[in-house]
Structure prediction request, 344 residues.
Amino acid sequence: MAGGGMSEAELVNASKTKRSGPLGLLVRWGGFVKFSHTLFAMPFALASMMVASREHYHYLLDTDARMPADAVKYGFPSVRLFVLIVVCMVCARTCAMAFNRIVDRQFDAKNPRTANRHLPAGEISLTSAWSLCVLSGAGFVIAAGFINTACLVLAPVALFFICFYSLTKRFTDYTHVWLGVALALAPVGAWIAVKGGSMAELFQLWPLGQTLVPPLVLGLAVVFWLVGFDIIYAMQDFEFDRQQGLHSLVTAWGPSNALTAAFLSHVVMIGLLLLYGLLLQFRIAFIIGWLIILACLVFEHWIARKRSLKWINTAFFKLNAVISSVFLAVVAAEILLPFFRRIP
Prediction:
């Protein structure tokens, strides 16, 4: 018990501050889809966009092709493409989160930790939630179509993965892997948006900077990062999930073994991030960022062992937001600042 006799679940489910008018409506819908959590995937997508832009510039330079604007060399493909990538990110994540809230609404209503979410609490209607899910999914496909052919063709595949994750906890213990793949589509998709004008260009085999190898390595790192911290997040629902027959590595292996799996997953993630930096010839800024990320992961696992709701939320939200933000910052430094630019 904490806070004058209130349990942790009661503290989490304390009544939300109500706001009226357009701002209140915006806050309510933003809370429904956890818009603030876009910070997890967006930095990886933007970092991948910047790297793809720089690599594309150097490729054109080496082949004596017609050169784009200088901004491309410094990671900014164009205002139009940047806006479309952000729109795709926001729409895809909104669609996935709305779908998650819809299909999980009965479980959310039974779980004391989630009983005050918008659908169980009646703050948002099921019809409105489905409307948001469908419209955001359509917005994602349309925005992808405005980018290039490869993005248009692959958009339905991406939607399947990011939405289907919500159903996996009903039949597989590896639901965290599905979520990891869904999140990993962000950096891979951003790379394709910049470089994949056609399906043939998308599967180019050489040079390395024109291939899918760098974004796939980054995407794989994101998968292992997500698997690790989603296991930590699932710790707080261990008893409820076991009672309801919901699957996760925590319910399958027990909290102690699952935390060990999370730690090993993050060990692999940190190794893949280092490989990514080596592939792209990053230098001192990236190494500094890599060390900060390593320190955050170590601290995350230290506090996760406490297994209280307060500490798990700290590990899940704050530290992982720092990790993704630091990654974007150091990649941007490598591309933008003269001292960190790749040696020709």
Q: What stands out?
A: Confidence is low (pLDDT under 50) at residues 1-17. The chain is about 70% helix and 0% strand.
